[in-house]
Design goal:
The protein is of the alpha/beta class. The protein folds into 2 domains: 266 residues, Type I PLP-dependent aspartate aminotransferase-like (Major domain) (Aspartate Aminotransferase, domain 2); 104 residues, Aspartate Aminotransferase, domain 1, CATH 3.90.1150.10. It contains 18 helices and 13 strands.
Amino acid sequence: MVLNIAAIELNKVILSNNLAVFDLLSEKGKGMYYPSKGIPAQSAEAKGKEIDATIGMAIDENSSPLVLELIAKEVSLSKKDIFNYSSSFGNNELREVWKKMIFKKNPSLNSEISLPIVTGALTHGLNLCAFLFVNENDSIIMPNLYWGNYKLIFSNWFGGKINTFEMFKGNEFNLDGLKEKLDSISGKKIVLLNFPNNPTGYSLTLSEADKIVELLKEDAEKGNKLLVLVDDAYFGLVYKEGIFKESLFSKLSNLHENLLAVKIDGPTKEDFVWGFRIGFLTFGIKNGSKEFYSALESKVAGAIRASVSNLSTISQSLLLKAYSSKDYASQKQENFSLLKKRFEEVNKVLENKKYLEYFEVLPYNSGYFMCIKPKKPLESEKLRKILLQEYSTGVISQGDLLRIAFSATKTSSIEKLFDNIYNACKSEMHSIK
């Protein structure tokens, strides 16, 4: 690949700051750059001029966006906050606000981090990470219970190899399994961790979080180069005491010069705006300089420019308005309280030991979901279909598990949900016999 001069300059900045991170970049990542002399940059220079004939937008005779009023009247924002293009980096004010929120929500975070880049929610953020860091056949270490989209992104699209370990050892996170996978690879390593976990709804205990950090630090100290992707899609939704409530990013972003932590997060679940499709991608590494972070941000923005160009302006504007509202915290807490109530109702219902006759419950303490494992010879996919056809009940079959979204279940329906599963198991077991 012949590199553009802009990519070469960004690579020089990264190389001069941290050789390990340069080596973590994929070939595509090394070749990526943001076109600083391209159309967006030239349009930015022309902003505010008497005549601006640069950007591909239509303007009315009053210098406002030329739009359909039937759309504009539906939203109480200015036209520019609805219809204008956003930067490939995202709305800068929103980026600054989100960065401040990261520090507020993670009080132990005490090092400089990059300015978050706006992405098309978590899926796009993960995709950008794969583009920048995953070469074909690179191994991505993760627990065996993971969101199915990881396989589409990292394996099917970018040719990486998903390398899993058993997530649980008894009722605890399998630290030994993670260590074994780390020890089995030398040099460049990519680790993907997601807490609260989808599908299990499990978050680390305080001691488990510390031990994971210790394992990763020991590995970096051996001279290995680690990229740790922290998928924080369900950040903040922790319902029990003794659980680590911050992001692992707060412990990893200043851990070692050989470990680059990437926080992939967003308001989708945190702020209950699923259709907004907005997320953020943030870097953290020990002794990371502003120049270094700026180079990585430019590579991300270049990848965005090359794919979707920029993200939804209206979604970013609405979020920015929400974060400045006096009602934001109270309304968010109200929604959290409802989810916690449903979590507690699940706990209460499952105190009935009858359910153990047909399925075991995997550890859960947070997020949107919990999982059960039907006992053999019961099959999860067959049970899923029986529940649909005979009990008007929908759940997700994932391998030998059933994933249950208590987040989407009315509190009053939770007991009926598990009774339907129990009865489906019972009837299926009798038919097998």
